[in-house]
Amino acid sequence: MFHIRSAALVGLDAVPVEVEADVSRSLPNFIIVGLPDAAIRESRERVRVAVKRSGFAFPSTKVTVNLAPADIKKEGPAYDLPIAVAILVAHGTLVPPAGKVDRALFLGELAFDGTLKPVAGILPVAIAAASLGFTDLYVPAANAAEAALAPGVTVFPVASLTALVRHLQNEEAIEPQPASAWTPLSPRIETDFAHIKGQTAAKRALEIAAAGGHNVLLSGPPGSGKTLLARAFPGILPAMTFEESLEVTKIYSIAGLTDRDRPVVAVRPFRAPHHSASGVALIGGGSWPRPGEVSLAHRGVLFLDEFPEFQRQVLENLRQPLEDGTVTISRAHGTLRFPAKFMLMAAQNPCPCGNAGDPDSICACPPAQVVRYGRRVSGPLLDRIDLHVEVPKIPTNDIFAAAPTESSAAVRERVEQARAIQRGRLVSEDIFTNAEMTPMLLKKFCRIDGAAEALLRASVDRLRLSVRGMTRVLKVSRTIADLSAAPDITAAHLAEALQFRERRALAAT
Ligand SMILES: Nc1ncnc2c1ncn2[C@@H]1O[C@H](COP(=O)(O)OP(=O)(O)OP(=O)(O)O)[C@@H](O)[C@H]1O
Ligand SMILES: [Mg+2]
Q1: 225 CA distance to ligand 1 middle (Å)
Q2: CATH of domain 193-402
Q3: Is the minimum distance from the CB of 225 to ligand 1 under 6 angstroms?
């Protein structure tokens, strides 16, 4: 029996799938077995029509197609192409020369006229192809640029079933896709730091966050510039490395969100889901599991504006990815993991009217309501936020100040330098930023001097820091030290990091 190979995605990984077709002399029928989903069952109609309209004979007897192994759920329309090829071979219409398809992978959705439509999830398959022992990858022409980002495999852009058959029979070769070049892009600056007046403390906090990959909570009254600051944040983020770009592009590929002409995601993602977002939208999942916002924000920013307005249950789901950098999705056949290393940027008002704590305004909310509002976001979640930043109403003088403030590009330069220092230190550990350090690395890289240790001891008691809180303070201190290229963490670095601990803990003292 002749096998045509394709691939299935399990999370971000690709596993090989064998497609075999049998044409027997029984009554006309066409069945597909091997755990296909609805889209694959519909594939019967597409394949039948596409084969006929391409000018080939479709068997007038019984056709059985088996997708193996049977215990992996096959999803989506990408099996159209391997199924069509397997049937043409089984029927004797297509006779590929020996060795032509042994190490080839086929993926693609067929239109009725026999042309190919792009499918989602090409990049993870292309990246896995070489390590699975495949040399040739046949994909829809529209997916070819994305596939050609992967090293070690020849990508053939397939325009139609007819073109593929002619190629496989050595009648007319399809030109392989040239390898796609990768260039890091500078972030598009929508709002420049230079246009944000005052808010020096908040800007400094964002610089630290960008440099070390830390989570931030911005709190302040309405109109003080929280949303503005958050929107300006991508402009100071460092450029992505090639590895980061591939990781992110894989996720976007699975979500079907890659751009045909510029398939690679070369700018850090900035995702800003609305507060009505569901748990599945945020975390991922569904019957055909898609990455959620936390994964789409991988290596970038997840911005949750109006933080307390999100459903508490939905927010609680963030706890695991914030800690582990991955998200686990349970489903009928075991669990799946998607990467989710994002910076959380949250913004909130101190109370429903927004004026609590402002010396110049009167808060109209009953005290109980202010307390309730503050409790909407759980303590464990707030504990995972390294930088708690006050964004007060700016003083009138600042509003009318003529002195220009620093541009995003200037801040970004310092961020890049601090990142380069971290990369030098962490490259052998396979991580990029201080925020990702494990407890072991923390011990290794966050040495503090005597004065700093005394300060830390005192603060643990005074601020009632959890152990997690303490490790997060140390990581932020490391970043602050890196921003001034200091080899060791001093009491001054630590003191600045401690300023950004949770307000509630401070209020309790
Ligand atoms: N520091 C600032 N410098 C320049 N413009 C500002 C500043 N703060 C606020 N603004 C102006 O005010 C507008 C509203 O600010 P923004 O939406 O960021 O407020 P906010 O803090 O998010 O308020 P809310 O709590 O109501 O969401 C901005 O679009 C901007 O035009
Ligand atoms: Mg806002």
Answers
A1: 3
A2: 3.40.50.300
A3: yes
Please work out whether the CB of residue 392 comes within 6 Å of at least one atom of ligand 1.
no
pLDDT value for 371: 81
User: Which one is the CATH code of 3-168: 3.30.230.10, 3.30.230.80, 3.90.215.10, 3.90.226.10?
Assistant: 3.30.230.10
State pLDDT tens for residues 244-295: 888 999 999 888 888 777 778 889 999 999 999 999 999 998 777 789 999 9
Confidence of residue 416 (pLDDT cuts 50, 70, 90): very high
The protein residue with its alpha carbon nearest to ligand 1, atom 7, reads: 225
Q: CA-to-CA distance for 121 and 503, rounded, in angstroms?
A: 43
- pTM listed for this prediction: 0.85
Of all ligands present, the nearest one to the C-alpha of 229 is 1
Provide the pLDDT confidence category of residue 379 given band limits of 50, 70 and 90.
confident
Our answer on whether the CB atom of 395 is closer than 6 Å to any ligand 1 atom is: no
Q: Which of 93, 109, 86 is nearest to 34 (CA)?
A: 86
Those residues whose beta carbon sits under 5 angstroms from the ion ligand 2 are 226-227
Q: List beta partners, residue 67.
A: 19
Is residue 394 within 6 Å of ligand 1 at its C-beta? yes
Q: Where in the chain is the domain with CATH 3.40.50.300?
A: 193-402
Tally the C-alpha atoms within 13 A of residue 122's C-alpha that lie toward its C-beta: 34
Residue nearest to atom 1 of ligand 1 (CA): 197
Residue 305 alpha carbon, nearest atom of ligand 1: 27
